[in-house]
Amino acid sequence: MTHADQLAALRAADPALGALVAPLRNLEAILKWAPGFGIAFAGIDLVQQDEYSYDLYLPLPDARWLVFGVS
Predict the structure, then answer these.
(1) Among 29, 30, 66, 69, which residue's Cα sits nearest to residue 49?
(2) Do residues 10 and 20 lie in contact, with contact meaning Cβ atoms separated by under 8 Å?
């Protein structure tokens, strides 16, 4: 599934969150956006998948998780 496909699925499930996430293109942008959305840095988890890629887990205030693939 491509980034565009994943974003389209998120927009279909939660249009407001999809609109907020759409402009985020890199780790720096995500980390700048997170505190303003109510995501505490202490709750963020970065899990290494291999030497080049990570999964970034952000706990949303409504008890859901938002996960980004970062490489």
Answers:
(1) 69
(2) no
Q: Could you tell me the pTM of the whole model? A: 0.86
Q: What is the identity of the amino acid at 43?
A: G
Counts for the chain of helices (H) and strands (E), in that order: 3, 3
Q: What is the assigned CATH class of domain 3-70? A: alpha beta
Residues with Cβ within 8 Å of 7's Cβ and at least 6 positions away in sequence, in order, are 18, 21, 22
Q: What is the pLDDT along the chain (71 residues), one digit of tens a residue?
A: 888 999 999 999 999 999 999 999 999 999 999 999 999 999 999 999 999 999 999 999 999 999 999 88
